[in-house]
Amino acid sequence: MDKSRCKQQLAFSLLLGLWLPYCLTQTTPSNTATSKPTTTPTPSPSPRPERLKVRLSGYPRKHNEGRIELFYKGEWGTICDDDFTIANAHVLCHHLGFVSATGWTHSAKYGKGQGKIWLDNVQCHGGEKSIEFCKSRGWGNSDCTHDEDAGVVCKDERIPGFVDSNVIEVIDENKVEEVRLRPVVGVAKKKLPITEGVVEVKYKDGWAQICDVGWTAKNTRVVCGMLGFPHERKVNKNFYRLYLERQKNNFHLHSVACTGTEVHLAACPLEFNKPNATSSCAGGMPAVISCMPGPLFMQNSGLKKKLKISTNVRLKGGAKVGEGRVEVLKDNVWGTVCDDRWNLLSASVVCRELGFGSAKEALTGARMGQGMGPIYMNEVKCLGQERSIWDCPVKNITSENCQHSEDAAVRCNVPYMGLETSIRITGGRTRYEGRVEVLTSDPNGTQSWGLICGENWSTKEAMVACRQLGLGYANQGLQETWYWDSSNVTDMVMSGVKCMGNEMALSQCQYHKTVSCQRAAAKFAAGVICSETASDLVLNASLVEQTVYIEDRPLHMLYCAAEEDCLSKSAAKANWPYGHRRLLRFSSQIHNIGRADFKPKAGRHSWVWHACHGHYHSMDIFTHYDLLNANGTKVAEGHKASFCLEDTDCQEGISKRYECANFGDQGITVGCWDLYRHDIDCQWIDITDIKPGNYIMQVVINPNYEVAESDFTNNAMKCNCKYDGHRIWFHNCHIGDALSEEAERRFEKYPGQLNNKIS
């Protein structure tokens, strides 16, 4: 290569922040004392000495994510997560040859590093060539422990022309990434989940066993947790010994010494088998374990009753089983946990007490949506052995410490049930949409795919289908799918499907024993559109309580309201325009605390113009307002069409995106709210015909599930209501899922109200 061309290439490469050793080896003068003749380029170029070396490490991870480790002064070390930002992650991912970062992790998500913590309080702008050019406390100056090691998740796309991969992998066959239980007993092989068997680790292209000499219950606890089981149980080793002695075993691990709190076997001290060892497991046999599943995954109903899971901890807002925002119950009111110092140890305690395995992820920053009630816990510091999060040390909360934007969440390990193998979607433009097909067996055991009748198929059924598919939340349930007609499957095999919405699979929902479908053509088969995120609407209950009052409104001012059906039926018999209607008025402030904007299902082309009020309706029924008597019967009702879904106001740092003026886009942005003031038309219940007494007032948002949400249990709000014929009092206003079951029962009975249920 001529020198001028090499200089051009070198200049271009430096401009990109790259280094081309090939060019240098060809242009290095051959008469220098230290130089050695080089005829061929090295296949994997190494970075120049002064360029900082960076690598991704840890477990369990993909090639584009991991704990960040820096090579400085001849030693590998980590970065502390204090003040870490996405800008820092961008700089590090660029350095590693990826186009950008998609996220970063804290609290040693990929395991604790060793050696030095090289950098702390790193603050990059995002454009720096290397992390060393960012502000920090200086090399080796840190007040952190390896519990706070930072990691990055890079976008799996390489910078074009990036020569030095800089993803320095430790070439080590002694890594444990995948672990499985291999059932030995014939019956166990057919049933899912697999709870008992030989522990095996992925090794090369196959699976290898672990020597059980020195194996402890703590090791079993860790493996069970990884596989989605909260507890371990004793196993009959003698039964297995007879079988395993006749098998050829390939021992990869010679010794495991877990403490019992690890979330992955790779985090335990491991001793790998030496290839030339004469006896790989002297006096032992392959490790065999037995795990106890949580109640959700048990076949035996008798055992289910004995196993109690926590009633004062729950997960909310997750798409899949075993994930969600962590909520805890105190004084009969549910509240959230702040994410300061939230880590896998604390998350695992929550997962196990709810009947799942150890934690797969400890999520921060309201990644599963924001809660609405009190924030009860901060800086939770579980050791990992506690039975409940309530047994862990915590800090008291002040409003300066935490906001709901910092609500902690978890993703737990759950047992493999194989549910996704019996459902698929076809014909969609993306993998998130299509016509639903389910796998069925005939009496002879022959399996075939079939369709689901679209009649009465709704968002609730779609929620279950999307969960079973592993595709997140339901965006829409479709009753016609003629536009997705790309499959040769035409037979309807399921009809009358009716789900609660929280089932793990469609087979757990109600459905017809014999298929009965009036429109049996394939074009009327059920379909879904799934989404990774969803909105979540919640009413501000305290504002309803604060703003309620009675107005006697003259009939001549209610013509438009009557046209929009906002008055009770007796209004039609009134002597218009004389007389009045007695209206129970209040304000509604509707927050979107989910992770996607709430938008009307219908596009603006199908919105209905209402000339009387001079606006479009994007949803015919957006809220129901009901007054219920002692036995739960509606005695008065109102409803609100969504004539204007918009961002009235937002949390700090969030911009409004929707406004109704000039036929604008309608919706509610995440972190914003829509306020229907007490003094606008139809923001009432017509109580003209109501006698004095005690009632329950109920508001239900999105009552027909027209628009998908991550959680429908918080769409209802209820208040105790006392009316003396002249004045009205509201008290105990609360969101439908805000109280404990006991407190909810007390609410229903006050006073003498026994059976009021949200329909």
Automatic annotation (TrEMBL):
Signal peptide stretch: 1-25
Gene Ontology terms, MF aspect: copper ion binding; protein-lysine 6-oxidase activity
Family, as annotated: Belongs to the lysyl oxidase family.
Function: Mediates the post-translational oxidative deamination of lysine residues on target proteins leading to the formation of deaminated lysine (allysine).
Occurrences of domain SRCR (ranges): 54-155, 181-292, 313-413, 423-531
A GO CC term attached to the entry: cytoplasm
The entry's keywords: Copper, Cytoplasm, Disulfide bond, Glycoprotein, LTQ, Metal-binding, Nucleus, Oxidoreductase, Repeat, Secreted, Signal, TPQ
PTM field: The lysine tyrosylquinone cross-link (LTQ) is generated by condensation of the epsilon-amino group of a lysine with a topaquinone produced by oxidation of tyrosine.
Disulfide linkage: 80-144, 93-154, 124-134, 258-268, 338-402, 351-412, 382-392, 453-517, 499-509
Transmembrane segments: none
Pfam families to which the protein is assigned, alphabetical: Lysyl_oxidase, SRCR
Source organism (scientific name): Pundamilia nyererei
Enzyme Commission numbers on file: 1.4.3.13
EC top class, as a word: oxidoreductase
InterPro entries tied to this protein: LOX-like_protein, Lysyl_oxidase, Lysyl_oxidase_CS, SRCR, SRCR-like_dom_sf
Localization terms from the record: Cytoplasm; Nucleus; Secreted, Extracellular space
Cofactor(s) this protein cannot do without: Cu cation
Primary location recorded for the protein, binned into one broad class: cytoplasm
Comp. bias (Low complexity): 30-39
One GO term of the biological process aspect: negative regulation of T-helper 17 cell lineage commitment
Reaction it catalyzes: L-lysyl-[protein] + O2 + H2O = (S)-2-amino-6-oxohexanoyl-[protein] + H2O2 + NH4(+); N(6)-acetyl-L-lysyl-[protein] + O2 + H2O = acetamide + (S)-2-amino-6-oxohexanoyl-[protein] + H2O2
Name this protein carries in UniProt: Lysyl oxidase homolog
Stretches for region Disordered: 30-52
